[in-house]
Amino acid sequence: MPVTHIDLHDHRSFAGGQPHEAFDWLRTNDPVHRHAEPADEGPGFWALTRYDDVKEVGRDAERFSSSPTIMMADSANDASDGEHIMMLMADPPVHTRMRRLLSREFTPKSAQLLAPRVAELATQIVDAVVAKGTGEFDLVTELAGEMPSFVIAEILGIPLEDGRSLYHLTEALHSSREAIGIEAQQAAFAQMFAYSQQVFADRIANPTDDLSSVLASAELHGRPTDELDFFRGSCSWSTPGATPHATSSARECMHCSNIPTSWRCCVPIPSG
Predict the structure, then answer these.
(1) If phi over 0 gives left and psi between -120 and 50 gives alpha, with beta otherwise, what is residue 197?
(2) What pLDDT shows up at residue 40?
(3) For residue 21, what are the CA distances in angstroms to 8, 104, 122, 254, 258?
(4) Which residues partner with 35 through β-bridges?
(5) Which residues of the chain are under the pLDDT cut of 70?
(6) Residue 272 pLDDT
(7) CA contacts within 13 A on the Cβ side of 269
(8) d(CA 118, CA 150)
(9) What residues have CB less than 8 Å from 86, skipping those under 6 apart?
């Protein structure tokens, strides 16, 4: 495949899934590829396709900073204004402090304690699909997308239905601007921020033991958390958590449907 036919910026390149042929070509012929982008979004970006290169960049914050943004498109509205920093756009030691604040919910012990509730949620999601009685369902939105949205809602301490709504708003934010339009993305951002303001105010007035309360009562950057810190802090792990899980779950099911023997990898092995 000639390099001139590779366009990782165009959402249509991903319409049929990951463009593995393009990645294979780049990995063999141009593993550190300078990729063009529209003039109104920036001067271009680097596409790295070899594991060792990606690993090195991810571990070297001094030469390859996440600030002011990790997004391909440059923007005057960076995710950091110098005082309010999103964890995804932060480098150590700021990133380390923010990650430590959230890490209590993601230790092996915390995950083990949450496991029974996750199993209940999984059963609830599957039962809802079966109850439709149609014999058909959308794997991504009705199963793969429901699971992370419900678990995130559980950890944040918000209603499951709100978690589902936030998932759909997140999907809009992560969609290509050309696919859904910038107005739709701006509307999704505004709705997420308005909801975050409500949760923040509630947890300040009525703190509990959920992660929303931890974020609302924390001190970041030498001062108490405000509502913008809260919004960016919650988005830092809930936003990237839902979409990758939904995508990977859907791909696993597609892989297993193509290779039936793969299902045995998904079946729990009895202990003892």
Answers:
(1) alpha
(2) 74
(3) 12, 40, 35, 19, 19
(4) 45
(5) 1-4, 73-82, 236-243, 263-272
(6) 45
(7) 3
(8) 9
(9) 79, 80, 232, 233, 235, 236
